[in-house]
Batch of 3 targets.
Target 1
Amino acid sequence: MKISKGCILAAGKGTRLLPLTETKPKPLIPIAGKPLLQHSIEMFRENNITKILLIVGHYKEKIEEFFGNGADFGVEISYIEQKEFLGTAHATNLAKNFADQDPFLLFYGDQYMDSRIFEKILDEFSTNTYDGLISAKYMEDPEKWGILKSNKEGFLENLIEKPPDNRYGNLANAGVYIFNQDIFEGIANTEKSLRGEYELTDSIQYLVDRNKKIKIVDISNYYWNGVGYPWQILETNHHIISEMNTDLIHSSVVEEGSVTIKGIVEIGENTLLKAGTYIEGPLIIGKNCVIGPNAYLRPYSTIGDNCKIGNSSEIKASIIMNHTAVPHLSYVGDSIIGEHVNLGCGTVTANVRLDKKNISMELKGNLIETHKRKLGAFIGDYASIGINVNIMPGKCIGSYCEIGSNTIISKNVPANSLLFTKPKQQQILRKK
């Protein structure tokens, strides 16, 4: 049976992505020039899923304003607000009327994956008689994931949350499902878990225990990334840009003398490339930007619309969001800079520890190992950075912050903060 309906769970607050989600919902975080959710919707359309339900919550009005009824994206979009956050089963149950009697694809909206994954699982379901389907990916650290134990025929037998080792295998739940109406029976018979939520995995286990055939489809050979941490945004940006295979330079782009462009690049309309600028692809530059003079843009970077990268500034493997300025003599490496941010002259985002060890980030009060040796700064929207500011690796600056000149950022700065280094008392003596 062909699938034409898809539901995307996109209501979460994305607190692990702060400060990027202080002023926008996680689905609208730009990756490789498009919001995360737009990538997913376009993949749905490519696979003939044209009726889409978005379960929204945090900053729902911004999502609805951007996507509207879906006509501009070649699909039909409807919305339901998730007013209570009682778990994934509770969220999925909101799709009951949308699904009606039809099978539907369910997708967690904080993921990015290869479009061929959708093609694979849709073909698997449509050419067989299953009661449901669940995607799986091989993980070397099963103790961090929900693991799927299969029987000899490849059907789901048990879901084990974060087992102590790989005794149940290494196939983790990858967050893409196909369900028929049986799932709503499972949800109706699901009780709250120990953490006080209605878990979709418990609803699926209910069906398995009643001999429903839930097929496990291994997607390990394709790109998949859960975009739950800031560095995973950069990983996904890197992957998408690395897949670019042709230049897309708008005819209205203006190049002054001695501009160098190497590799594959995408440059939007009305962008000005000033003299001496060196662009090394693959990378993406938006529309209405001013780049240079003498700017250096390095691979795997995304520059948004209406941005300025000024004299002798360098951008490396970073995301610069719309309306942001990196005017002159600054370095931004392995970083994400929000919208309407201004970096003062001489701003440096340090992206490597002096001892060359992996970088940890403080998120929600916990120190998280990123497994990254190179990782820069994460700056929220509307921040203003003074001249000669140095930001240490893996540090966050909240939205609407003001950072005074000559400040060294060695810990996270909360939103709406004013931070400056008080200069030592100066004494001016008159010459004899």
Target 2
Amino acid sequence: MAPPPPSSATVTQPVIDTAGSAPPDHQTQPLAVVTERLPWKHTFISLRVPNFRIFAIGHFIAVVAIWMQRIAQDWMVLELSGSVTAVGITVALQFLPSLLLGPWGGMVADRFAKRKILILCQGMAAVLAAVLAALALSGAVEVWHVYVIALVLGLVTVLDQPARQVFVNELVGPTYLRNAISVNSTTFQLGGLIGPALAGWMLTAVGAGWAFAGNAVACCSTVAMLLLLRKDQLFVSEPAPKSKGMLREGLRYALGKPTIYWPWLMAGFIAVFAMSLPVVLAAFADNVFNAGAAGYGLLNALVALGALAGAVASTRRRRLRLRSVVFCAGMYGVMLCLAALAPSMPVFGAVMVLSGFWCLMFLTGSNQLVQVSSNMGIRGRVMSLYIMVLIGGQAIGGPMLGWIAEHADPHVALLVSGGVPALAALTVAVILARKGSLSLRVDLKDRRQPVRIVRRAAA
């Protein structure tokens, strides 16, 4: 049984702001909205669910380890090749399968047991990490080895990510879904804070091979956690029956809802231009600040520190609005542009913290909006399309930003990384404002809300 709902007053009403651009039949189902500010003790209320608590522990261990592997892998490729472009190619190979096969992974997630899919995927990831560890520790590793392993790991991700997204609902049910998504993001960013710092230390102390070995052990622990879950306490949904046109059905469904389509579009701009930030940070650490592997790990940890704050803030978000998702994407782009102008590493690091905050506010908001806007029977396919854009976009952005950083300048690469998403967010905001007859009102006398978005009166 799930724990009782929070004591704060809740009402069920449609609150997703579509700016008046969709007909009623395209509106999402009603959502549970907290009308009072949650007590701090309810910030992570989804952890009261025993199965989700077990899953979160395993997820945290795995995230720390995967960040260790990601940082160690990127730095090892940079050392072996001397090329930032090669680092971008590694990122592209790892994310390219999601771009090409993402919808197929979502269809599999809708048709088969999510828990079994995750156990299979984590077992494969453990084998790949162990192979990479053996190559690195023996001194036989070459760049092409990393390319091949990154590509195969990307194929595993095609199945793992949509199943993982939908499995959260089976762990907590609809009552705590939004909170569980935010808790997952918090866990991911806490791991992202610890993982890069550990990787930076391990790269200088014992070498990259031990970081890969640690990830292999962590994947095995995730499998153990999945096996410990109580099946009788899962909110298992009926598998979708096999039928022709399942992928087209998911695409039509996504394009028919503004609360899925617009976050999907913004996720595309963020993914291509701003989600391959570690590639640009490698160039800054190596060529601009001369900070080495430890500095690279530190910069990634600072981004994760801000993201952790953003993830915690997202758990206390009372309303889920399309306009706020677009705003957060724009702020992330602005922060990256400001970082490109930073005169020193301390200032650069401080802006990276703010960048991480706004990035996570966007990611959690868009993820929640897409998930709660889709019915369970089709959610795997909808989420796979979202993940295809979010992860697959990095397959394009990684090599592109790496090439710009290497052949033009790291500062130019970071300006492109932030400037394009910021411009896209501004364009989408104008379109939504016109469709919804919205305008910006500034009232400096109102101390609580000096800037508000209001609906214009009809002529």
Target 3
Amino acid sequence: MVLVPVVLSLVLGLWGLGRGGSMWRDEVVTYDMARRSLPDLWATLGHADAVHGLYYLLMHGLFALSGGADPLLVLRLPSLLAITAAAGTVALLGHRLAGPRAGLLSGVVFVLLPPVQRYAQEGRSYALVCALVVWATYLLLRAVRTGTGRAWIAYGAVALAACAVHEFAVLALPAHLLALPRGARAAGTRVMAGVCVCLAPLIVVSTRQTEQVAWIGGIGASAVLGFAGVSVLGLACAAVLRRAGRREPVAPALSLLVLPPLLLLLVSLVKPLYVDRYVLYAHAGTALLVGAALDRLIRARGRIRTGAVLAAGAAVLALLPVTLDLRTPHSRTDDVTAIAEAVRSAGQGADGIVYLPSRRRVWSLPDPGPFRALPDLALSGTPAASHTLYGTELPSSDIRARMRAATRIVALRDPAGRPVDRTAREAAKREVLAEDFVECGTQRLRGARLTVYARPGGC
């Protein structure tokens, strides 16, 4: 029962794990931070990305032990193993809540969900958080059943570990509390309050670093529609289960599916923070409901059973193009490897490079070779030396002077239509390029634009 989703998860995760040697910018941050010395890493976390601090420390240890192993394998293997463990735990949850076949189906559904497949192959913390939240959910059910203090402590420890890896895992706690039977709520509340108290120092530090999430815009229609669609699916499955008299899976699965993303959406009305990967673990609730409902429909006879089987087959076929696309370099926001190759080609004869905005300097971190021949005209301190994610830049007056001393500049920019940063440094870069240079040509890359600028008549 557990073996099938575990093996399926491993097969799908290993398939195309390297994505043609590509890496996207969030993975680059993990790669860069994990390879810094412990003193540098610790100093950086005091200024930025404390929310991912424990994950970076874990990855630092893994890279230290990996020797000459393929860096992309080292970067992504923890996520693959985490999702594999989560798939097995989802199957166990489904078994406990609705029976062995429901558990099997829940585990398989979980593995096939596109967001789960995506983050099983990314060097970020979200797969590990998902695995820990699912494990905590399983331990919560055991604590409710046994009522022992040891079981509650085990639940609290794993829930705290999930929150320490990424603090938005704390949004799973209200979902867990809502699913508790009345007799267990007092014990559950005490344990969850203890988790929050232990997490408080991380929350205090990370709230001082909110400029890192300034890129998150308001709640978009796609986010609302995506949440609404998954919620409607969950409610429909819950209705099937209630009608069949199987209420056990409904409360824990539906609360996990709906409440964490809903709370994050509500918070985002005040401070934009909603990104679906922050609550990836909510898809465990989706899988539990779909798996249990599918089990009930298969148990039925005649047209209902036939329709359920056909619908499940059609869903798998519909997901196949997405599954194939997720293994390609263009499936992510950008392709740092392709950007580096474009710089290698376009940078010949240039006097320097500028990044608009400065955080796109991240594109140069995993493979600095193509960038070494191009002086960074705005750079003051490198990311590692300045204990920052993207380095520090000179004052705007110095940036202007260095750019005006050049005759040919490579500019790495966001795609057209993206909001521009309004800082003095970013404005200085744009103004000098517009006033003193002409555009010689632009390459539109995945998630980026590379433009070569020269003095008038110098293209």
